[in-house]
Amino acid sequence: MNFVIIWYDMTSKPLSKISDVPEYKNILVFISDSLRYDALPDSIKSMGVTAKTIAAAPWTASSIPSLMTGQYPSTHNVWMFEDQLPERPPLLSQPADWTGGLDSEKHWLNFESSEKPPVKMLRLEGEQRLDNLEPPFVHVIHDLGPHAPYGFENNEYNTHKFFQEYADPEDLRQRYHADTKKSAQYFREILDQLESNDLLSETLCVFTSDHGELLGEGGRLGGKWGHSAPLCPELLEVPMTFIGEGLPEERELKGVISGVDLAPTCLSAVGRSVGKVDGIDLWTETPADDRFVRADVWQRYNAIDREWPVYVGSSLWDDSGGWVKHRGSNLLRIAYYGYDIFFGDYAPPARQTAGLRDIISGIAFWGSQWSSFGTPQTSKSVAEHELSDKLEKSQNSSEMSEEQTEHLEALGYL
Fold it and tell me: Which CATH number fits domain 22-289: 2.40.420.20, 2.102.10.10, 3.40.50.1100, 3.40.720.10?
């Protein structure tokens, strides 16, 4: 048997210091939905400078607004798909001589362009297509990625039916990883299109994800599948790979990186400022040695004419681990976990991966007030202070149609 070892040089320098290009003209951001860091294909990692990144939230509704604004969910308060930012996010709000928008051609197919959830959350009028772009531009592609149901085209959503029919854990994991490669191939096709249009050499391209995915991990995660909750490394550690003319290949950034760093970094790379944000500008800055970053989630369901906050949590992460503060009702969290394992969309594979010890550990984890992962250098007292705020509901929400609700349910979001 032959083993291939791929070595990636580490760097603690800002991107501008390791690039031969002082500034780019355009930005392309490719979001591969649900792609966790340890599943990033080597074909992408070898193309540029990669940072292990802490997503600002473990699901799309909060994390994409964070990517576009440079703000944590606790700042922008977009928690659910009906919530909206107060105005267009900085990354997509360029001066009149710029074009900036979102393309989810391979995602959310059952919606009209202007009615797609990310379009409404970001207060865009509709989508933009790569074919129609004139530089300078910021173009964001939201790809289906390895989002469940795995191994299907994006017009075949039915999460519940899928996991009833395909319940073999190893088969599901293989399907998930096959979808990561499929998404990577789509990204490379986008790069080829940019090159054929003579745009690639002046465009900074970023391959990233909005959150990760649980694939039946045992122990205190209890054999759970899917995403949205809880706050844990498998759902928060995602890739962010910077690719562009002048940037080195097969390089990794050191330090604690957050999804909220994307907007300030991209805008700085094209000579613009994002204003006041929670993230840092990786184009000209490096993360401080003692930096910690945040991730939040507010998962709620409507049932029996009442809103149930089934999982609300905040977390603080440094280079060695993280602290998780479970907010709200312990009983609701345990009930949410139990329903997911025994009756939810992902129950068939969960019942195969969750042994009795896993379930007991899962109940203990979901019922706790505080948890830690790894060996965080940040003390619990610092975490308690930093996460002492109260999460606020969004003041800007829109009514979802029956069709939108049904489609989100088919995706396993509701």
Answer: 3.40.720.10
